[in-house]
Design a protein that fits this description.
This is DNA-binding transcriptional regulator NtrC. Residues 150-379 form the Sigma-54 factor interaction domain. Keywords: Activator, ATP-binding, Cytoplasm, DNA-binding, Nitrogen fixation, Nucleotide-binding, Phosphoprotein, Repressor, Transcription, Transcription regulation, Two-component regulatory system. Residues 8-125 form the Response regulatory domain. GO terms for molecular function: ATP binding; sequence-specific DNA binding. The chain is an alpha/beta fold and 472 residues long. The protein has 3 domains: 7-129, Rossmann fold (3-Layer(aba) Sandwich), CATH 3.40.50; 147-317, P-loop containing nucleotide triphosphate hydrolases (Rossmann fold); 324-424, Helicase, Ruva Protein, domain 3, CATH 1.10.8.60. It is built from 19 helices and 14 strands. The chain has helices at 16-27, 39-46, 68-78, 93-102, 114-124, 155-168, 184-193, 215-220, 237-240, 256-268, 294-299, 305-310, 328-340, 352-360, 366-380, 392-398, 426-440, 445-452, 456-466, and strands at residues 7-12, 31-36, 56-60, 84-88, 106-109, 174-177, 202-206, 245-249, 270-271, 280-281, 285-290, 314-317, 349-350, 385-386. The chain has a 5-stranded parallel sheet, sandwiched between helices. Helix 2 packs parallel to helix 3 (68-78), helix 13 packs across helix 15 (366-380) and helix 13 (328-340) packs parallel to helix 17. The longest helix is centred in the last third of the chain and has 15 residues, at 366-380.
Length: 472
C-alpha cells in the first residue's frame, strides 16, 4: 500500500529493462525513482538538491565504473543514514558478507520477486524499527532440500509437514498457504524431492512478478502471431513441466482470466496455447503457494471459486514463526551452523540471553527474517557466541531484554529457571530438551531417540504426553 508521501529512490543500474521493472514496482508503493547509469553519476547525484531528498539506494552489483562493495562504502561514507540495497546474480555468501561489511542494508538475488523487493524497501526505510538489523535478506544456503531440513517441533508445524510428506507421494494438486517467509518454497522443494517425479522437471513461476497481460502466455504459451508482438512461438511453463511439477507462487496475485484458464486445465488436463487451433493433454502436477487466505479472496471476488475448488485436494498451512516461538532455539542453532560453513564466516554459538531476546520478537518476516538477522549478527560478531548485545536494534524495539538464564546455564539451550528465578517444572525442561534434540537432529526421530538414550516408541509416547507433537 502506498505511503501518503512520495519517497525518492536512486537506482544505480545501466540495464534499461531492469530499470523499468524496478521503477514500476517501486511506484506501486509511492516511490519515485531516479536512474544513475554509473558510479560517478551516483556519487555526483548525492550532492544535488534531488540527491539530498533520497530515501534509499538500490544498486546492481555490475554497475559500471566501480566495484560494488567499494561503491557501497563510498556512498555510505557520504550519506551514513541512507539505506543501500544491492542486487546481484551471485548467491555467494562471501559477497553478502562483504556487501554488509561495506554498509549494505540488504542483499537481493536476481531474479528478485516483487514482494521481496518491496518488503526490502519497506523495512529499510521504516526508521522506527532500526533497519540495520532486521532486513529480509534473500541469501540462500545450499544443502539438501528434504523434510529433514525442515526444523521445528511445534504441533502445527509438524502437522503441516505430515500432510505435505503424505501428499508428496501422491499426484494430487497441493495448496500451500502461509505468510511470506514461513518456508513455502523450501517445503515445495522437499515435496518434489520426496515425490515419484523427483527426477522430472520442477518449474517455479512467481505470479506476482509477471505483468497481468503476460501471465497467460507464460503459463500456457502462445503461437507466432497470436497477438501484437508475438514474433515467435513461445512454450509455456506448463508444457515445459510436462511429466514433472509446476509450482505457481503467489497464486493470489494471478489475474482472474488466468485463474479461469488454470482451473480449466486442472479439471480437464489439457491446454490450448494462445492462438493455437487445438488443445493437447499434459501430465503435470501443480503445486500452488499463497501468502493470503484464498477463502477470504473468494468472498471479495478476487479469486475464482472454480480454481479454489480445483485446488482443494490437499491444503497445507505453514504457521507463522510467532505461532511456534518454541522452535526459535533449534532454528537459530541450525542457521548458525550453516552460516558458519560459509566463506568468510566461522561457527558461532548463541547464549540463552540472546535466545530469550529472539523469542520475545514477533518476527513479521518469519523464518526468513530470523535467518537474515542471525546472518547479520554473525558477520559483525567478534566473540565465540552471539549474545543479546549482538542484537542492539532488536533490544531497542522490544525494550528491556527478557531475563537470561542464571550463570551456569548460559549457552545450554534449555532454560532451567523461570522469569521469577525459580526452577522450572521437570516436565517443561524435558519437553524443551526433546524439542532441542529434534531440531538439532533435523527431525530424524531414530537418531533423536538414540541420542536421548530412549526407545523410539518411548520418544513418541513422550511427544504425546508432553504435547510436543500431535502427529504420530
Amino acid at each position: 500500500m502506498a505511503e501518503p508521501t512520495d519517497r525518492l529512490l536512486m537506482l544505480i543500474d545501466d540495464e534499461p529493462a531492469q530499470c523499468r521493472l524496478i521503477s514500476a514496482l517501486a511506484a506501486r508503493e509511492g516511490w519515485r525513482t531516479i536512474i544513475a547509469r554509473d558510479s560517478e553519476t551516483a556519487i555526483a547525484t548525492l550532492g544535488t538538491r534531488q540527491g539530498m531528498q533520497l530515501d534509499a539506494i538500490i544498486l546492481d552489483q555490475w554497475v559500471p565504473g566501480d566495484e560494488a562493495c567499494a561503491l557501497i562504502a563510498e556512498l555510505k561514507a557520504r550519506r551514513p543514514a541512507l539505506p543501500i540495497l544491492m542486487i546481484t546474480t551471485s548467491a555467494s555468501p562471501l559477497l553478502a558478507v562483504e556487501a554488509m561489511r561495506a554498509g549494505a542494508s540488504d542483499y537481493l538475488i536476481k531474479p528478485v520477486a516483487p514482494d521481496r523487493l518491496l518488503q526490502a524497501l519497506r523495512t529499510a526505510t521504516r526508521r522506527e524499527e532500526s533497519p540495520d538489523e532486521l532486513q529480509p535478506l534473500t541469501e540462500k544456503f545450499s544443502g539438501t532440500l528434504d523434510f529433514d531440513s525442515m526444523i521445528g517441533a511445534a504441533p502445527g508445524f509438524r502437522a503441516a509437514l505430515a500432510v505435505a510428506a503424505k501428499a508428496a507421494r501422491t499426484q494430487n494438486t497441493v495448496l500451500i498457504e502461509g505468510e511470506s517467509g514461513t518456508g513455502k518454497e523450501m517445503l515445495v522443494r522437499a515435496m518434489h524431492a520426496a515425490s515419484p517425479r523427483a527426477k522430472a522437471p520442477l518449474r517455479i513461476v512467481n505470479a506476482g512478478g509477471i505483468p497481468a497481460n503476460q501471465i497467460e502466455s507464460v503459463l500456457f504459451g502462445h503461437e507466432k502471431g497470436a497477438f501484437p508482438g508475438a514474433f515467435e512461438r513461445h512454450v509455456g511453463a506448463l508444457q515445459h513441466a510436462d511429466g514433472g511439477t509446476l509450482v505457481i507462487d503467489e497464486i493470489d496475485r494471478l489475474c482472474l482470466a488466468a485463474q479461469a484458464r488454470l482451473a480449466q486445465f486442472l479439471q480437464r488436463g489439457d491446454i490450448q496455447p494462445i492462438g493455437a487451433r487445438h488443445s493437447f493433454r499434459l501430465d503435470v502436477r501443480v503445486i500452488v503457494c499463497s501468502n493470503a487466505d484464498l477463502d477470504d479472496l473468494v468472498d471479495v471476488q478476487l479469486f475464482d471459486p472454480a480454481l479454489l475448488e480445483a485446488l482443494s485436494g490437499v491444503h497445507v498451512h505453514l504457521p507463522a514463526l510467532r505461532e511456534r516461538a518454541g522452535d526459535i532455539p533449534a532454528l537459530a542453532r541450525h542457521f548458525l551452523t550453516r552460516i558458519g560453513e560459509q566463506p568468510g564466516l566461522r561457527p558461532l554459538g548463541i547464549t540463552d540471553g540472546a535466545l530469550s531476546l529472539l523469542a520475545a520478537y514477533d518476527w513479521p518476516g518469519n523464518v526468513r527474517q530470523l535467518q537474515a538477522t542471525l546472518f547479520r549478527a554473525a558477520v559483525f560478531c567478534d566473540g565465540e557466541a552471539l549474545t543479546a548485545q549482538d542484537f542492539p536494534n532488536l533490544s531497542n524495539m522490544i525494550g528491556e531484554a527478557p531475563r537470561a538464564a542464571p550463570s551456569g546455564t548460559e549457552g545450554a539451550g534449555v532454560m532451567l529457571y523461570s522469569p521469577d528465578g525459580n526452577l522450572r517444572p521437570l516436565e517443561e525442561i524435558e519437553a524443551d530438551v526433546i524439542r532441542l534434540a529434534i531440531g538439532h537432529y533435523r527431525g530424524r526421530m531414530t537418531e533423536v531417540a538414540r541420542r536421548l538414550g530412549i526407545g523410539r516408541s518411548t520418544l513418541y509416547r513422550k511427544l504425546s504426553e508432553l504435547g510436543i507433537d500431535n502427529v504420530a
